[in-house]
Amino acid sequence: MPNDNTRVLVCDDELDVREMLQEYLRKRGFDVVSAANAEQLRVMLEGGGFDLIVLDINMPGEDGLSALRKLRKDNNIPVIMLTAAGEPVDRIIGLEMGADDYLGKPVDLRELEARIKAVLRRGVGSDADELQRTGRAKFGNHYLDLEAARLVGENGEEVPLTAMEYNLLKLFAQNRGRVLNRDQILEQAHDRSWDPFDRSIDIRISRLRRKIEPNPEKPAFIRTVRGIGYVYDPDNG
User: Fold this and answer.
1) H or E segment at 92?
2) Could you state, in order of their start, the residue ranges of all structural domains in the chain?
3) Cα separation of 81 and 50, whole Å?
4) Which of 49, 172, 205, 223 is deepest in the core (most CB within 10 A)?
5) What is the distance between the alpha carbons of residues 179 and 232, in angstroms, rounded to a whole number?
6) CA–CA distance, 156 with 61 (Å, rounded to integer)
């Protein structure tokens, strides 16, 4: 949970956006300061002490992607990018360059708060390093073996998975602590049979929960974030 020591730096050229984010996040317990451009961002970062940056991509002069590129040369502070609607290329480039998450504008304040908490909880690099090192991700008493592409149960026996169930578990394992909305799941799981207008994602996740959750009616490891999507939280429960 955030507290007065959790410092967030918001960088956006729009004054009304900065003020809106500052007001909301401060009410939610964060210590928030803002920058109007990339140059101000770097000056503020020199003082240190920030836990996370909310960085707009589309700024006049030096844009957010350029600022992120320079930042990542010597700084691993978590970054959530803000992107204008309908710009998937910028979003993908941002993630590839080291952004921890992204959120489209206009900003849904509740979703931003959820993303910030998830990124802070995840920490910098540790989960990705662990997954890369072991090739395994925990789901309660089960674990997903990425090398063997199989789910192993508490007794060491393989739990049958469909191809899409495996893809879903792999997607969650690679995004530990990150809230994934349905659009992200549709994009990243690459299942052409899914219809974004039906409830197929929810049905498949419900089936997965019956395989991995001690109590599928009260899921602990793949949790629903109301109004947003789902989050993989192996330390819960």
Assistant:
1) helix 88-96
2) 7-122, 126-232
3) 16
4) 172
5) 8
6) 56
Other Cβ atoms within 10 Å of 193 Cβ, number: 6
* Phi (first) and psi of residue 138, to 5 degrees: -80, 140
Q: Cα–Cα distance between 178 and 234 in angstroms, integer?
A: 12
- Alpha helix segments (H runs only) across 123-212: 126-134, 163-173, 182-189, 200-212
Q: 139-174, pLDDT tens digit by residue?
A: 888 999 988 899 999 888 999 998 888 989 998 988
CATH T-level fold of 7-122: Rossmann fold (3.40.50)
CATH top class, domain 126-232: mainly alpha
> In degrees rounded to 5, what are phi and psi of residue 161?
-130, 145
| Tokens, residue 72 | 């990542």
Per the listing, tokens 């910098």 go with: 124
d(CA 194, CA 203): 11
List of residues 6+ apart from 20 with CB closer than 8 A: 107, 109
Token pair 């993908």: residue: 92
Task: Name the pTM for this structure.
Answer: 0.59
